[in-house]
């Protein structure tokens, strides 16, 4: 038997669905009511982005990326998966990148057109990350503490930032700022898919039940974000 | 760590010992100091299920699972430095429950974890809060020559009691066979279940011939096997109760494994107390005969 052919995705996910759900819940329990502040920051960022105060809009999510890197990945997720620490460093890199783009204004679209299709896609993705994603856990039988919130949890932070990048950035800066959030959304979607496939336990069944719409939602967001990034790249090229 | 056991724990452990005496034990051919050991046929795995980090809620929940395991007279618990926080979680549960006589602690050395075999074993002992390991295995054959030599030295000095190697998913069976033939090992851990029976061809007969204990991992094929049977609403065949005392799918799948004469124990993993009860009941007599085992395999193939 070929060794590598025998490996499956689930061989790389070292925890069960209930453990992952508890990880999300612990973040909620530990940091409530910080959620209100981070959500307000997220909403303010979207308003600033659409009202052409793009430099500040690019800067605001940066500390939240650093917070998620430390509080979620390095302090908690890394306990379950050695790779979590490295993802944490990637999130810190994203925070630094956002600060650099804001400071240098490299690739910053100072006056995004609201009617532009990539900006519409970006706005929809941002709203999904800020409003819909937090509601998914409570709507699929989970507790409110399991609600994944921008600036507290990794998925909504990555998704919202993908949306904001589509509004705020263009060219190389857009691709650079989209890579880490997109990769995390991909990893997270695959994780949820595996957790659903292997979630046999009774309490895990509830958790893995929520994993199905979660994975579908993340894959859908990723597809639209990719469409938006490619569209914007063509738009920028044809505008030259 | 405080290893003192309270009166309540003592009573529970006496109960566990009595339960263990009522379970059929599979003779373990490896021996230490001339004493022939016995292991209950159902052990416990910790891959994925015991990697709960520092979550107090889940730490307590897993403690209940281990408590149930010991109440049924459970013996072998298998972990690895590859399993994230699972060794620490075992340490937590043993701190809460005490360390019963029936515990047969099985760990592994794994090159990517870093450090020599000696350093890894020392660190893992601290994480488990145990004074010694009953078994240390070379995980997935990584750098097995170096690790096995170091483990043999540790066994000779009495630091660990038994040595072994592991593989899973049917990987590298020819190399496993070579090691079983050429090296003096006490245990081999491999994947063996009703839908993965490749080990029956060469490895299980070789283990029986050389007196090597066999630990069967992935008894439910990573959970898929039992989950699919339950999800599809498949019912047990009518003859299952009469021929092998099976009243649940856990009985059917686990009894098939542990009734193979070369198998020492199977190590299902679970997060649920209820499933631990089910798993442990599967270790009770009656066990299927060779003919019944063939019938069981044919039945699963027919589904």
What would you say this structure looks like, in words?
The complex is a heterodimer of chains A (240) and B (303). Chain A is mainly α. Chain A has helices at 17-31, 34-50, 54-59, 61-80, 83-104, 117-139, 154-168, 171-198, 202-239. In chain A, helix 4 runs antiparallel to helix 7 (154-168), helix 5 runs antiparallel to helix 8 and helix 6 (117-139) packs antiparallel against helix 9 (202-239). Mean pLDDT of chain A is 91; it is low at 200-206. Chain B has one domain: TIM Barrel (Alpha-Beta Barrel), CATH 3.20.20. Helix content of chain B is 44%, strand content 16%. Chain B has helices spanning 7-22, 56-71, 86-97, 117-128, 144-156, 173-182, 203-210, 224-231, 239-244, 249-258, 273-281, 290-302; strands at 26-32, 35-39, 44-45, 76-78, 104-109, 133-138, 160-166, 187-191, 213-217, 265-266. An eight-stranded parallel β-sheet of chain B has the order 3-4-5-6-7-8-9-10. A two-stranded antiparallel sheet of chain B has the order 1-2. In chain B, strand 7, helix 6 and strand 8 (187-191) form a beta-alpha-beta unit. The radius of gyration of chain B is 18 Å and the shape is globular. The interface between A and B is medium-sized, with 27 and 31 residues. Chain B: InterPro entries: AKR2_Oxidoreductase, NAD(P)_OxRdtase_dom_sf, NADP_OxRdtase_dom, TAT_signal. Chain B: This is NADP-dependent oxidoreductase domain-containing protein.
């Amino acid at each position: 038997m070929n060794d590598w052919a025998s490996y499956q995705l689930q061989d790389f996910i070292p925890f069960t669905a209930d453990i992952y759900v508890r990880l999300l819940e612990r973040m909620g329990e530990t940091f409530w009511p910080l959620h209100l502040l981070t959500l307000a920051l997220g909403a303010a960022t979207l308003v600033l982005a659409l009202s052409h105060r793009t430099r500040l809009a690019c800067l605001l999510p940066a500390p939240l990326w650093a917070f998620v890197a430390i509080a979620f990945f390095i302090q908690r997720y890394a306990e379950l998966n050695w790779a979590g620490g490295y993802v944490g460093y990637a999130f810190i890199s994203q925070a630094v990148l956002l600060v650099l783009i804001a400071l240098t204004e490299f690739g910053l679209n100072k006056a995004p057109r609201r009617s532009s299709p990539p900006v519409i896609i970006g706005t929809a993705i941002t709203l999904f990350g800020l409003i819909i994603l937090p509601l998914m856990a409570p709507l699929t039988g989970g507790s409110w503490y399991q609600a994944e919130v921008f600036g507290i949890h990794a998925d909504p932070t990555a998704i919202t930032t993908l949306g904001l990048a589509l509004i705020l950035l263009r060219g190389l800066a857009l691709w650079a700022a989209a890579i880490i959030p997109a990769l995390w959304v991909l990893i997270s979607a695959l994780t949820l898919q595996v957790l659903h496939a292997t979630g046999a336990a009774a309490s895990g069944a509830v958790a893995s039940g929520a994993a199905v719409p979660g994975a579908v939602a993340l894959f859908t967001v990723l597809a639209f974000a990719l469409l938006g990034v490619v569209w914007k790249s063509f738009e920028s090229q044809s505008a030259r | 760590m405080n290893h003192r056991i309270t009166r309540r724990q003592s009573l529970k452990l006496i109960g566990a010992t009595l339960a263990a005496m009522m379970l059929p034990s599979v003779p373990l051919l490896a021996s230490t100091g001339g004493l022939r050991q016995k292991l209950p046929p159902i052990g416990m795995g910790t891959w994925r299920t015991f990697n709960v980090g520092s979550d107090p809620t889940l730490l307590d929940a897993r403690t209940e699972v281990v408590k149930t395991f010991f109440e049924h007279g459970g013996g072998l618990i298998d972990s690895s430095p590859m399993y994230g926080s699972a060794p620490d979680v075992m340490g937590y549960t043993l701190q809460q429950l005490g360390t019963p006589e029936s515990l047969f602690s099985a760990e592994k050395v794994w090159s990517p974890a870093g450090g020599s075999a000696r350093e890894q074993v020392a660190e893992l002992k601290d994480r488990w809060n145990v004074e010694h390991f009953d078994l240390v295995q070379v995980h997935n054959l990584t750098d097995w020559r170096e690790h096995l030599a170091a483990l043999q030295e540790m066994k000779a000095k009495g630091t660990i009691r038994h040595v072994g190697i592991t593989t899973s998913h049917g990987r590298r069976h020819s190399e496993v066979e070579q090691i079983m033939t050429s090296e003096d090992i006490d245990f081999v851990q491999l994947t063996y279940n009703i839908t993965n029976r490749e080990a029956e061809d060469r490895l299980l007969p070789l283990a029986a011939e050389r007196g090597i204990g066999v630990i069967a991992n992935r008894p439910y094929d990573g959970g898929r096997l039992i989950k699919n049977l339950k999800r599809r609403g498949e019912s047990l065949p009518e003859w299952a109760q009469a021929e092998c005392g099976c009243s649940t799918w856990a009985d059917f799948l686990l009894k098939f494994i542990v009734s193979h004469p070369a198998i020492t124990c199977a190590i299902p993993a679970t997060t649920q107390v209820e499933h631990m009860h089910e798993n442990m009941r599967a270790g009770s007599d009656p066990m299927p005969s060779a003919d019944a085992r063939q019938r069981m395999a044919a039945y699963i193939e027919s589904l």
